[in-house]
Write a structure and sequence with these properties.
Largest sheet: 8 strands, parallel
Number of domains: 2
CATH class of the largest domain: Alpha Beta
Structural class: alpha/beta
Radius of gyration: 29 Å
CATH topology of the largest domain: TIM Barrel
CATH superfamily of the largest domain: Aldolase class I
Order of helices and strands: HEEEHEHHHEHEHEHEHEHEHHEEH
Oligomer: single chain
Number of helices: 13
Shape: elongated
Number of strands: 12
Strand content: 15-25%
Strand order of the largest sheet: 5-4-3-10-9-8-7-6
Distance between the termini: 62 Å
Mean pLDDT: 93
Amino acid sequence: MNYKNYLAKEVKIQNFKISKNSKTFIVAEISANHGGKIKNVFRSIDYLKKIGVNAVKIQSYEADTLTLNSKSKRFFINDKSIWKGKYLYDLYKSAQTPFSWHKRIFNYSKKKGIICFSSPFDKNSVNILEKLKCPAYKIASPEIQDLDLIGYIAKKRKPIIISTGIADIDDIELALKECKKNKNNKIILLNCISSYPARRHELNLNYINLLKNYTDLVGYSDHFIGDEASLISVGIGAKVIEKHFILNKNIKSPDRIFSMDRNEFRLFVKKIRETELALGTTKVNKKVLLRNKLKTITRSLFYLKDLKKNEKITKKNIKSFRPGIGISPNQINLILGKKLKKNVKKHSPVQKKHV
């Protein structure tokens, strides 16, 4: 199916309209970076609002809703990740944003005038978020295969940001099919590498161009250390950028290694906006064009000698030179053979009023 014809060309999350030609929707992912203290969430919101971030995102789960409290080796992390040596339950217990905090976080965000939304990991999380009027939902990479959850969220008719970190083409298309089945076309697809932190050779940022086969509303969920991957993604066409934020690296969080602190995130936002400014649009910048036409780098037509009234203009008595202060060389055929209305001086610019 051609999903590009079905999916929305513009998605509105509260007062922010995301489209092919919009500014980048910058999302600060707080995730586990509160370090178990809700005041760190509030302080994060204060700072992120101050530096011009468009939205903050939390994750809606508790350890018991994600995994079993088991010390079996099946639940032990023994890979090369930064969480190696932990049991899943212990990891998620330390990382969870308690449901009891959610109302306070959403209320505080509203008070500060910044968008707040979440990644729910089960239907109960969605129900909690619905009561809080969550304006959009993020499908985390591992949940793209949970079609039951995606369908449940799609029925809420709110924008859905789908991360494709662990997804193959079939996973993406099944998720989109589920959204369509539930009459929700407000979808944004994010390129993502589910590696923490992502390494340079893993990034494959051109994958964004593949996602554009489905929709123009694409973005990037960034787990790379630094801002380079996100800035490149903006250049490719990402309209949503999600990056993990932490107040400071002293906070004990399982995500702090690949998160940006205050100063880093401030510069991150600044660089994205500067990148957008440099990219411009597909339209001619008329102000710049006009300014450049007035500069000495452009040409115009000049008289090669003194000419009398009623003399004809020919290629022998005019020629193009810099600066561009007279008639443009591309208009020479409009004046050749015309008679002068007045005397003109050698090396003066040809003007329309002369003929």
